[in-house]
Design goal:
With 311 residues, this protein is α+β, with helices and mostly antiparallel strands. It has 11 helices and 4 strands, in the order H-H-E-H-E-H-E-H-E-H-H-H-H-H-H. The longest helix has 39 residues. The protein is rod-shaped.
Amino acid sequence: MSSAEMPSLVARSWRSLSATGETEIVPQARLSGPMPWVIAIMVAMTVIALAAGLALRNTAQAAAAELEGGVTVQVMEADPDARNAQAQNALTVLRELPQVASVRLVPREEVDQLIEPWLGEAGGGESASIPVPALLDARIDGKVTADAIEGIRAAVAEAAPAARVDAQSSWLKPVFDAIVSLQWLAAALVVLLSVALTAAVLLAARSALGTNRDTIEIVHLLGGTDAQIARVFQRSIGVDAAGGGLVGFALAAVVILFLGRRFAGLGAGMVDGGALGVTDWLLLALVPIVSVLLAMATARVTVLHALRKML
């Protein structure tokens, strides 16, 4: 550093410590450098990943609540007359069981609608070439356990030999297992993105320290403390993180709302159950706030650690 530059540098450093002029140590145009946009991308991806995890949780909870206590009885008999007779017998037996809260024989038209996407219109009806079982939808009190299923199976065995008893939740167990795996994946993405955000802030703080090393040394000579200098960097990165967080959350909200409308158009029951509620949106709104706090804490710790090694 030349002797001609020293007075002006001392003056700038002194002004940086006077009154509220601490932020002058790190002159920077907001939202013009790469740091705010890096934070915006990280926040947007974190919000989308968290929203996916919350939607999957809502889907699983809605499906589990709908299927809780549900038991399906299928009368798998090729002869239509025998099938209908056994279905009526099974219906009578189930109504007499104390653990069965409600039971109904699913109408033939409803069964035909269920199988139409796979077998077409010709697959249903009494004259169908493929025998379609008669279905009984029952609800029992309490949880559907293996003992409960076995008790119902034994009760209807004599009245309907061709009957098959299954818990409705067992049909979707592979789906539930897949949803749990996707939830863990979403959680892992949130953690990885948080780590990436911390690393980006750490690198930005170190770069700013290197750029302003001469100014920091003069500030120390004038009596500035490490805490004062760290507060300057912490405030500067906090402002960048706040701007980037707002931009990232806005982008993520647009994506989530767009995808939500797309999935809502499918008209599927499980998909509709995954809609985000008010509590979910409040959790998503915490992401940019937590990102700002994480960025400021990372910047402060990084700067203080570097200043101890520097001096």
